[in-house]
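Changelog entry: the Sugar kinase record was regenerated in this release. Current contents:
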Amino acid sequence: MIDAVEGDNGWCLALVEPDGERTFMSFSGVENQWNADWLSQLRTPRGSLVYLSGYQLASSCGEPLIQWLETVDDVTPFIDFGPRIGDITDDTMARIMACRPIVSLNRQEAIIAAERTGLATDTRTFGEAWVKRFSAPLVVRHDKDGAWYFSAQSSGVVPAFPATVVDTIGAGDSHAGGVLAGLASGWSLADAVLLGNAVASWVVGHRGGDCAPHAKRYSSHTKTYRSLRQ
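Regenerated structure tokens:
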């Protein structure tokens, strides 16, 4: 636990449209003020998953975070670049990818990533080329069309769960949380992405940014999905 007594947390004003889409106005805070002193206090067990966002990596604290990643042993970064993917320099991106992170992108971010790396924008071709170039797994989220996953071992499309969209706030974050929970439990990337799809489908069907399901609700949600698939 890092105790930062100076400064406030960042915050975000989300404007939700009638169709569930949203526009964000983000204001940075102490979460983007990582420094060498804070990082030296972390005790990261071998085999850990380390989540980082593009907001952090594109800010002034990106450099100390990347330096830390380059020195920590036997951890797997999980990076959701988000809308800041276009703000990260090529040199910085090369250093990030040298750490062989699992990267999660939505379809728009995947196109940006493909164009800046000179890869094809077709999802399958892009994902396979990404793994070949960076030796790192990739997840590409396609909303109601499911999510692609790519790794050195396997690749494929994981179907989406049915949902009536009322609010897409937190959809990408909740998907990342589901994938991380699956991976932390020792699941395959495909199964972890399925969990991410399930959690995200629940979240977009409920209003508010803090509505990820508890285990009982998640179980009920997935049972409904399985009955529809049979």
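The radius of gyration is 18 Å.
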